[in-house]
Structure formats: structure tokens, C-alpha cells
Amino acid sequence: MSLPPSTPRPHIFTLAWPLLVELVLAVAIGIAGTSLASHLSDTSGAAFAIAHNISVTLFLLFRIVGSGVGVVITQGLGAGQRERADRVALASVGASTWIGAVTALVALLGAGPLLKLLQTPADVFPLAVPFLMALAPALLFDAWNASMAAVMRAHLRTRDTLLVLVAMHATHVMLAVPLMHGWGPIPALGLPGFAVALTVSRALGLFLHLLLWRQHLGLVTRAPDWWRLPRDELAEVLHIGIPAAAENIAWRLSFMAAMAAAGTMGAQALATHAYVQQIGSMVIVFSLATAFAVEIMVGHMVGAGEFGDAHRLVRSALGRGLVISGVVSAAVALAGPWLLGAFTSDPAIIAEGRLLLWLGVLVELGRTFNLVVINALRATGDVRFPVAAGAASMALVLAGGSWVLGIHLGFGLAGLYIAFAADEWIRGLIMWRRWAVQAWVPHARAARRKLRAR
């Protein structure tokens, strides 16, 4: 739905709470998967973690479409250009087909080389390879679901996307347990069982998205929409989406370099890192929900020419985000022994994990700057600066610092987390300065001029 200027926009909390629940559910599934894998063995838990991280890295390619589609459609709806927004939405389907197919082939054919590149321990490798290969079909469905959900959110239908996610995750859990551990005549498939359940649940998500597109947005896909690549619509999407995806991919590649450092420390260190990462993901969802809601609102405001409102929205959202992430991350660190106990009974893993959770408080405070402000910059059309400014920090501080502090100076996993925190704070403060001095305004004005020209 397009909101005319006379119609009050929803409060940011109205958009943020369904997004928060979505993210919490997604994190819960990740934690459940790690827990199910760790109950098979700590080696299985490590294999799940490293293969899952590769699949998440490949998923970032979908940001090329998802990020661009979300910004272009929100700006178009803010300017009252519904017809063009619909053309962009349909163009995203064909683009997702091609990106999803390529990504699935990479996971299927490149599982072994990718895992070797990450220094996967010898005892973990035989479990991780078939698991990553089994994740390939789910990646194709995820490509479609990601772009369709981005369109729904751009139309402010965040509750609908929440319902789809609930249905997907409920189906995934109900199928994952019997497929992984066996039940009656169903054989125990181990980690590949998790991937099979994931594929079925993502297929259900695609069906539900198509239904909601028809019922609430009046969008109906035709056969050519599934493979066509219309140049005009996708040019705008790629203008936003490629830099946005590049920023995410640069971070993920740097993070994977840090994971490779953890891999050289052995299966126990890799398992510790995996468990702490899953617990820490319960904190990041609060900042992520705020950031996604801010991106949607700022996109609508830019389309309507309300730059002052956008500036005030980001300042207030960032302040609240810092308070929430600080309180939640400290609470998680305090509960560390009990949370880690859900994954393992190894006292060495629990002891080191507690230290990492406290270091994680510093990581999350810095990350809040990045999530909220970068999403806001992207919504204004200022997409190149975050990539250019962040790439050096990611490569030198995140990736390089992890190896220097963790391996060469012998700080172990604690060294990795110190590097994580330093990188987040450096990039976060750079991004905040750009927003505070309003260097994004020329980009927002340019986007507004293009919309008015149409």
C-alpha cells in the first residue's frame, strides 16, 4: 500500500516488533539446529557451525536483490508510484531465480573446496561436506523467499512476513527432529536431515508468499517472470543492491577468515565459537529489527521528501538501540554458564565461552551503530561510502586482527573477539559521523529528483 502524505505513517515500533519476532524465531532455529547437532557429538556441532556459516555467506548474495528491491520500492511508494513499484517487485522474482540457482550450484559442487579453504579440522570435514551439499536446494528457495519478503516489508506488511516465517520454522522443527535422529520407520539422517527439513519448509514459505502477494498486494507472477531480467527495473535495484551486498559480503568474508583462524585451534575451539555465536545471536536481533524498520521508514520518507523527519528518526532509533543492546548483551553474559550448558557439559568450553560472552558486550554496542546507521544510509541511496569506508577495517582489523591476536600473539578465541569489537567500533563511528554531518542528503535529493522526473 502506498501512503499519501496526508496519511500518518506507522510508529517505528509497529514495524519493528514483527521484525523482532521474525529474527528471534530465526535465531531460535539456528540455536535449535546447533543444539540438535551438538547432541549428536561436539564434532557434529562444529560441522554444523562451519557449514552453516558457509551457507549464510552464500545467502548474502541474495542481498543484491533483497536490499535493492526494498529501497527502490519504499522510495517509489513514498512518492506514490505504485505501478513502478509493482514492476520492480516482479523483476525481483526472475533475478532471484538466477542468483539462487548459481548459489545452490556453488554449495553442491564446491562444498569440499570451500570447507578446505576454511581450514576445517580433519575430524569435522567428513560430516560437514554432505551437510553443506544437502543445503543447496534450500538456498534456491531462500532466494525467492528473501526477495518476496522484502517486497512485503516495503509495503509495510511486516505482520504477514512474520506469519510466513512462523509457518516455515514450525514445519522445519517438526521435520528436523525425526529426520536427524530417526523416528519409527524414518532412518536417522544426522545433519543432512536438518537440510532436508529446511528445504521442505522453504518450499512452503514460497507457496505462502505467492498467496499473500496475490491477496494483499494484487501481484500475480506469470511464467516469464520467473526467469526474465528486465533491464530498467533491475538497474535501479542493482545500483542499491550491489554495494549493499558487497558490504555484507566483505564482512562475511572477513568473518570467515576469522573462522579459519578458529579452525586452526581445533574442534573444541570451533565448537566453543559456534556455541557463543549462537547465544550472541539472541542479542543482535534487537538492533537488526530496529535497523530494518528504520530502513523501511527512511525509504518512505526519502520518497516523500521528508529529510528532516528521517534525520530525527535515525538519531532517536540509534539511542534506543544502544541502550537495548547494552542491557540485553550484559544479561546474556551473566546467564552465560546456564546458556552454554544447553549445548555442552565440557567445563573448558563453558569457561572460555563465558569470557567471550562478556567481550561480546563490546562487540554488540559497536555493531548497533553499523546496523542502524548503514541501513539508514542505504535507504537514502548513499550506498557506496559504507562499502569503501568499511572494507579496509574489515580486512585489516577483523580478518587480520583475528589472526594476529588469536594466533600469533596467542590470545586464542579472546583475541578474535577483541578484533571483532575493534572493527565494529571503528566502522560504527565512521558511519555515525557521516549521518550526523548529513553527508547523505545529496544522495536523498538525487533519489527524490529521479522519482519526480518519472
TrEMBL record:
This is MATE family efflux transporter. InterPro entries: MATE_fam, MdtK-like, YsiQ. The keyword Cell membrane applies. Keywords: Cell membrane, Membrane, Transmembrane, Transmembrane helix, Transport. Pfam families: MatE (PF01554). The chain crosses the membrane at residues 12-34, 54-77, 89-112, 124-141, 162-183, 189-212, 282-302, 322-343, 355-373, 409-426. It is found in: Cell inner membrane. GO terms for cellular component: plasma membrane. It is a multi-pass membrane protein. It comes from the Bacteria.
